[in-house]
């Protein structure tokens, strides 16, 4: 392995360049602070997307709200806007401190995207936004719709017949397929979801029950995305939702930040120079966490510190950012198997578009063991009665790792944050869970409880 050549250099050479590489390759938990991180105003100079783009996405979602609330009655209480609650989780914070023997300064809160309407995960942001944008583009191009219309007219046979002439393809580890599939099928599109081997059976069954064509692969996500892209390239009426490169997905996710600003105000959480905000985002290919982090930086600039969270067996974004090689490498190149219980994060190759965009804005990345995801899953149910899927727990362990790891401590020191941590706020982004069938959730819970009987959270 040491002699293997990667991008013209031996693995041994890569290890010498990056002190963390040894631990990453041996799938130990790591915390990495991004040495390329810059002040917001310097970093955004190199980014082509801006606040106007996010506002444009926000307005589009508002135009569609009348339609969404009509066809998805569960969104009526938010008037067709798909948004999740923010909750304080002090009992979980205490439990985490007990479990780990560590201390979390400041308060821990949770952004509950597990509760997002329609598809129960963060993908209900970007995924649904991209489908709506595509539908709007098609309808406008055919003079069926203008911005000033009441978009509830889209809930009609005329529109469904129109959209049925077009199709949509996407590759997914599960949740993106759910979002794209459910939304596209509702509009009337024909839709093809290419599922990687990691995708859970219940997600495939649910999609098929909605009339979605599910194509299954024995391989991982990289294979599914190649096949989905190929299928769409052969059919001019087929639209490919490109999880690796889509700015639409990214902007749909970014909208979350502006809404979150208002939610934080309502629960009296201040974010300013003396009250730093930390956000911990479970990361797969990068679009979801990247879009949210971009929005958060636009809103809170240097007062927000965003970290990506990945499984120890699938740290694609960490490797891409740290080496600067982005999508040129995958975790398997380094002998890491990419196999994880965190199905939503089981991605071996990160998005170059996201890596490049966030390169100077993201504070860092850390990795979490699968067993810890399960321990946190059970602990969160016991302490707060919040039910998440394993991937979503990756964000929860962030504050423990920030305060425990030497690199985390150094990050706080380097950014003159040490004295401000008492007034800080930590947001664990809970990225999915409410659609998990009860018996599957019960088995997750039991797995976590069993692990807790056999090892301490702090054991490595
Ligand atoms: C997809 C997903 C993520 C990460 O989003 P990416 O855009 O793939 O990085 C995190 N958590 C859950 C539950 C997901 O489904």
TrEMBL record:
| Keyword Calcium applies | no
Tell me yes or no: is Lyase among this UniProt entry's keywords: yes
Catalytic reactions of this protein: D-serine = pyruvate + NH4(+)
State one Pfam family annotation.
PALP
Which family is annotated?
A: Belongs to the serine/threonine dehydratase family. DsdA subfamily.
Q: Which organism is it from?
A: Clostridium aromativorans
Q: Kindly provide the name given to this protein in its UniProt entry.
A: Probable D-serine dehydratase
As cofactor, the record names: pyridoxal 5'-phosphate
Q: Which residues carry this modification: N6-(pyridoxal phosphate)lysine?
A: 123
SUPFAM superfamilies, from UniProt? Tryptophan synthase beta subunit-like PLP-dependent enzymes
Alphabetized, the UniProt keywords read: Lyase, Pyridoxal phosphate
Q: Which InterPro entries match?
A: D_Ser_am_lyase, Ser/Thr_Dehydratase, Ser/Thr_deHydtase_PyrdxlP-BS, TrpB-like_PALP, TrpB-like_PALP_sf
Name the source's superkingdom.
Bacteria
Q: Where is the Tryptophan synthase beta chain-like PALP domain?
A: 80-401
Question: Which top EC class applies here?
Answer: lyase
